[in-house]
Amino acid sequence: MISPVAKPVGIGLIGAGYIAGYHVSGLRATGGAELRVIAGRDPTRAAAAAAHYAIAESTADWRAMLARSDIEAVVVTTPDDTHEEIATAAAAAGKHILLQKPMAPTAGQCRRMVAAARAAGVRLQVSFMHRYFEEVVRARELMAEGAIGRVFSIRLRNATPGPDWNGWFYNKARVGGGVVMQLGVHGIDLLRHLFGDIESISAQTALLRTERTLADGTVVHPDNEDHALAIYRFASGAIASHEMDMSEVHGCDRFTMEIYGEHGTIWLRTMRGALAIYAPEHTGAREWVVPELPTPAFGVRQHQAFLELVRGEAVPDGTDMDGLASVVVAEAIYRASAAGRELDIGAQERTIL
Q1: Which pLDDT tens digit goes with each residue over 59-96?
Q2: pLDDT below 70 — which residues of the chain?
């Protein structure tokens, strides 16, 4: 939490859909933000969202929001194919940006957003919530301490029934892909955050549910994949398997991960709990140990980090380039699946603007 004497950061939300609630609660939990206006394409829905989240104002004109001097930063939660237009306009208006993942449907759009933010001197953070979970933070610390030695392999699973609140998720032209772009980029970022650069990929993708009924009864026929399996080779020599699925009845709770090292094992979000470690040389116990973790408000760590960037209290966190990298990897998954063979990802492809 920030000092109560610090001036709250004026925030505007662009997008009145499902994920806006996560950002509202996370920002409010920091004690350092004032949510001043929410924008949505439909003025009625925007007004309803403002009332629901107790935000004073709503608008259907996000450009008018960017003209306001009392808005220092914006949170963008609109459909993926609108991200570039909104983010580049926000940067030109001098607003810092928290951008919902995936960063954009293509790596080219991501590069243009990064360039626009840097040219304007504003901070651009991509919303990869999983890296801020307490169990992920502690697992990273444990590996940095050498608790399990060199990491040999990782198993990661991202699985949900799939979103049922809007049909645009199932339109490849709007989102650039299916489960890999909508869900898999969370896992891609988490793996890169914990284990470094991915150097090569082999993959398979499939569309299993060819018809879906949304919560409002609308029937849609997806043209993008809802299942994918990727194998990654890291610069460190570690190998990871990554299963992505949006065809299940229940799925898993955001993700499950198993990390296997030279001297031990770390499991995240499994039947053993949020975090479990078997590493006798580190813990002194020849049994699974389940560390006690802090329990802050959901989303507070991520949104605190964003506010610190906005206030100039922290160095850039690199999630702008990480957002680009996640889309580069996602695009490589599609190419590897189509080619039916392992593909390399060059350093220039991962980083060039």
Answers
A1: 999 999 999 999 999 999 999 999 999 999 999 999 99
A2: 1-5, 347-353
Pull the structure tokens for residue 316.
């850039």
SS3 72: coil
- Show the tokens assigned to 43: 């003025």
| Separation CA 281–CA 291 (nearest Å) | 16
Q: Which fold has domain 9-127+302-315?
A: Rossmann fold (3.40.50)
Using alpha carbons, select from 142, 152, 141, 180 the residue that is nearest to residue 334: 180
Homologous superfamily, domain 132-295 = Dihydrodipicolinate Reductase; domain 2 (3.30.360.10)
- List pLDDT tens digits, range 22-69: 999 999 999 999 999 999 999 999 999 999 999 999 999 999 999 999
CA 248 to CA 138: how far, in whole Å?
30
Whether 178 and 208 have beta carbons less than 8 Å apart is answered as no
pLDDT tens digits, 257-275 = 999 999 999 999 999 999 9
Q: What is the pTM of this model?
A: 0.94
The dihedrals phi and psi of 197, each to the nearest 5 degrees, come to -65, 140
Give me the residue spans of the domains in the chain.
9-127+302-315, 132-295
Please give the backbone phi and psi of residue 43, each rounded to the nearest 5 degrees, phi first.
Answer: -60, -30
**Residue 39, strand partner residues:** 14, 59
Count of C-beta atoms within a 10 Å radius of residue 283: 16
Output the six-digit token pair for 331: 């695009």
Q: Are 100 and 76 in contact (CB under 8 A)?
A: yes
